[in-house]
Specification:
heterotrimer, A mainly alpha, B mainly alpha, C alpha+beta, A: 8 helices, 0% strand, B: mainly alpha, 2 domains, 16 helices
Chain lengths: 198, 364, 159
């Protein structure tokens, strides 16, 4: 076994082990941390393939973004420190079957596909090359998906601002609302305030 | 004298590399030995560095508050930090009951490992860096976003409300300030056209970016220093460990060696942030050059590149320390206002300015 | 309008931050001149306390072993935590009249908070605050002090 293979199997063990622990752990915060290890293992796999750009993006997006978001929502959840209940065994069997099915399907298609090696020299995955390819309008350029994703993100950002924006209530309406006492608690500006005070 | 001038870190490193490759037949073994040597060198560099930074911080704090700072142990109190370290190491490493023991012990390790990883692409001297990865800047910002996980983990597993509150605050803080840090880094990437650390340093051969890029680069330098001070949880942004409100925030429950690891991580982070600012804006190990004035540049080259790098880094460390002992701590809402209403819009506009400047060639 | 306000806020913020940094920068660069620390045990011989420092209550006596205390007990009443106890006696005057005078002026240093109320209350300026501060002793009894010297008497003309 060559050293390169050893490294590959180590990374694979981290990914699969982390994923299994994430699913089987009864503490939700621990699950999130094991998920983190699994995702870092995937980033390691990209580093192993000498594809540093994707590896860094994997770390930024999944580890720095999504897992932190998950952990934040765990923090804000009620009673998240307690152990979760063990799931019913039928559920466990069904989810194992579903996972196995997905796995077998993917492996089947991969084994069907014949990977051809190209004689062309490898393109260096530097930031400049990736950027040029991303914005090129030629046949293999990614300008369309890039712009579509940009539009999606813009829409999401505007949506966030619309939700978070503070609505100024005119004074006369505020007086009118004060008469029915409980409804004041749930008006929008107060909600917006609580969101900023973490 | 001539011999002394030719000795540099890069020649020593390549000498060791050649010697290892020639004596050890197995290439993999030679590489592993080299890696181990690099790691040991890094540790041998970092521990004294943390001593120096700890001493410097106390002295700077003392002088700025009209006191002497430590002046009892050793000459001018220079051994005070050694005494403190010995005390910390001797202390019992407590793990509180009710805490999540696995995560509690994992958190400080994650903090230190993250710092060590970020050190890899930093160029300490000419041709002297551990890993000249082609996405240097992106790698740094990616790995440093891992540090927040360590803080959240420490806060959660301590089973203490102060720790949890501190972790929550620092999470919100780091996630928001990462944006401005990224945008201010991008302005230099736009001017250089590369993410690679060595390319960025070489692009400043005719002058540092902060001089060549004038106003927009100065703005992004200021934003970088402010936002990265917040990123490493130092005062005035030390809400995560605000002593008056949260005892010590996320590391309230830590003692002994584990606490020392958090402290180590804090000082290494300070060094990293300053080193990145020095590399991107002040030219890293590049001596002070003015355009193509050969005579002047040649005189400047006599000062070793490692001294240039360390000098610039310590200058920025000093500025960050001065922040700490000058400004009062921000409130949580002020912290978020500063980021989302001031730093982020300004750095976005500034990015456009830099792009226009780079396209039109308005820099020197 | 909005933009000018915004820019003005940023400008003011940056300027005030720079002012602060200038101040601390001055202290840092002029450390030798500005440091106010008293290195206490080392400079014990030369140390002088500042004027308003209040260390303990003392009763000054002049060279004839005379004090100014009339035994009016105003200080005892003024003291918020019973630090002062005055034991009085009746003294026979040369003209045959009896007059109130102090026998012992007891002062409990361990109860005193150095609030200065007794000194303010005294009508004849008999007591004042001293600037001593090395008060620690091994036995609590040593903190109970008698302020009038043995054999002292009241100064002529103090009523």
């Amino acid at each position: 076994m060559s050293p390169s293979t050893i490294i590959f199997y180590l990374l694979a063990a981290v990914i699969i082990g982390g994923a299994l622990m994430a699913v089987t752990s009864l503490k939700i915060f621990r699950s999130a941390v094991f998920l983190l290890f699994s995702l870092i293992g995937i980033a390691g796999l990209y580093f192993y393939l000498d594809y540093e750009f994707i590896a860094a993006v994997q770390v930024i997006v999944y580890v720095g973004g999504i897992v932190v978001l998950i952990i934040f929502s765990i923090f804000l959840t009620h009673g998240s420190g307690e152990d979760m209940k063990r799931p019913h065994w039928i559920r466990a069997v069904y989810s194992a079957l579903a996972a196995a099915f997905g796995c077998i399907l993917t492996m089947f298609y991969i084994s069907q596909y014949t990977f051809t090696t190209s004689g062309k020299p490898a393109v260096e995955p530097s930031a400049g090359n990736i950027g040029a390819q991303m914005l090129s309008t030629t046949g293999h350029g990614y300008i369309l998906p890039f712009e579509v994703v940009s539009m999606l993100l813009l829409a999401a950002m505007i949506g966030c601002i619309v939700i978070a924006i503070k609505v100024k209530i005119p004074p006369h309406e505020l007086l009118a609302e004060k008469t029915d006492n409980d409804s004041m608690e749930m008006t929008e500006p107060i909600l917006a305030n609580t969101q900023t005070e973490i | 004298m001539n011999l002394l001038l030719t000795i540099s870190f890069s020649s020593v490193a390549s000498g060791i590399h050649n010697w290892l490759v020639s004596t050890i037949p197995n290439e993999l073994l030679a590489k592993s030995v080299e890696m181990v040597i690099a790691g040991i060198c890094l540790l041998l560099f970092l521990v004294p560095l943390c001593f120096i930074l700890g001493y410097m911080e106390r002295k700077v704090a003392g002088f700025m508050q009209m006191r002497y700072g430590p002046n009892r142990v050793g000459p001018y109190g220079s051994l005070q930090i050694v005494a403190d370290t010995v005390k910390l190491v001797m202390k019992e490493g407590l793990t509180p009951t009710g805490s999540d023991k696995f995560l509690f012990n994992l958190a400080p390790v994650i903090m230190v490992v993250t710092c060590m990883l970020v050190l890899a692409p930093i160029a300490f001297a000419k041709d002297f860096q551990i890993w000249d990865i082609n996405i240097g800047v992106l790698y740094v910002s990616a790995i440093s976003s891992l540090a927040v996980i360590g803080i959240l983990m420490a806060g959660w597993s301590s089973y203490n409300k102060y720790s949890l509150l501190g972790a929550m605050r620092s999470g919100a803080q780091i996630v928001s300030y990462e944006l401005s840090v990224g945008l201010s880094l991008i302005s230099i990437v736009i001017l250089t056209g590369s993410l690679k650390m060595s390319d960025i340093v070489m692009s400043q051969e005719t002058g540092w970016w902060i001089i060549r890029g004038h106003i927009p680069v100065i703005i992004s330098f200021v934003i970088f220093v402010i936002a990265s001070t917040a990123e490493i949880n130092r005062a005035p942004f030390d809400l995560a460990e605000a002593e008056q409100e949260l005892t010590a925030g996320f590391h309230t429950e830590y003692a002994g060696m584990k606490f020392a690891m958090f402290l180590l991580a804090e000082y290494i982070n300070l060094f990293i942030v300053s080193a990145i600012a020095a590399t991107l804006f002040l030219g890293g190990w590049m001596p002070f050059h003015i355009g193509h004035w050969q005579e002047f540049n040649h005189i400047m080259d006599f000062v070793p590149s490692s001294l240039w790098f360390l000098g610039k880094t310590f200058f920025i460390i000093f500025i960050i320390m001065q922040f700490r002992w000058t400004f009062p701590r921000l409130r949580v809402d002020q912290l978020l206002t500063l980021e989302w209403k001031y730093l982020l819009p300004i750095s976005m506009v500034n990015t456009i300015l830099v792009t226009v400047m780079a396209i039109m060639g308005w820099h020197f | 309008m909005f933009l000018t306000d915004y820019i003005r806020t940023v400008y003011k913020g940056v300027r005030s931050l720079l002012t602060g940094m200038k101040t601390t920068g001055y202290y840092f660069t002029h450390a030798r001149k500005e440091i106010k620390t008293e290195e206490y045990p080392d400079n014990r011989a030369t140390l002088t306390m500042f004027d308003r420092f209040k260390g303990e209550v003392v009763m000054p006596h002049d060279e004839n072993n005379e004090h100014r205390c009339t035994g009016c007990q105003a200080c005892e009443i003024a003291c918020p935590n019973g630090t002062i106890k005055i034991i009085t006696k009746q003294e026979l005057q040369p003209d045959g009249k009896k007059k109130k005078a102090i026998d012992t002026f007891v002062y409990h240093l361990e109860l005193c908070t150095m609030c200065n109320l007794c000194v303010v209350a005294c009508p004849s300026d008999a007591i004042k605050m001293a600037q001593t501060f090395e008060h620690s002793v091994y036995d609590k009894k040593q903190l109970k002090k008698v302020l009038n010297n043995p054999g002292s008497k009241i100064m002529e003309g103090v009523e």
